[in-house]
Specification:
Number of helices: 2
Helix content: 10-25%
CATH architecture: Sandwich
Order of helices and strands: EEHEHEEEE
CATH topology: Immunoglobulin-like
Strand order of the largest sheet: 1-7-6-3-4
Number of domains: 1
Radius of gyration: 13 Å
Bound molecules: copper (II) ion
Strand content: 25-35%
Length: 118
């Protein structure tokens, strides 16, 4: 299934850093069925995906230096894993964040929400 195994993540406010590890449990190579994990405000998601599709696989389907991206892994293929760590201070209480895969066409299914704990 082309899904993340979590549909929502709550980041504890007390943490300084938060690390996400993505494991690609499929078998297809990254060129055909690559996945990544990207975090942004929910409002920025569509724009990041659109710009990333133009950037292409060579840039991990993320426009270089896209300031809207809070954190992202590289695009990985079957059997691989990748991690990203971000500062919890980058998140605002009450703001809506989304995580998604920026491989073209994947975010409709590969999508979830992230928030800061109260
Ligand atoms: Cu994907």
């Amino acid at each position: 299934m082309m899904r993340f195994n979590k549909s929502s993540i709550v980041v504890p406010k007390a943490c300084k850093h938060f690390k996400v590890t993505l494991k690609h449990t499929g078998t297809l190579p990254r060129t055909a069925m690559g996945h990544d994990w990207v975090l942004s405000s929910t409002a920025d998601e569509a724009g990041i995906i659109e710009a990333g599709a133009k950037a292409g696989l060579g840039d991990n389907y993320i426009k270089p230096n896209d300031k809207r991206v809070i954190a992202h892994t590289k695009i990985i293929g079957g059997g691989q894993s990748a991690s990203t760590t971000f500062k919890v201070s980058a998140l605002k209480a009450g703001e809506s964040y989304s995580f998604f895969c920026s491989f073209p066409g994947h975010a409709a299914l590969m999508h979830g929400t992230l928030s800061l704990s109260k």
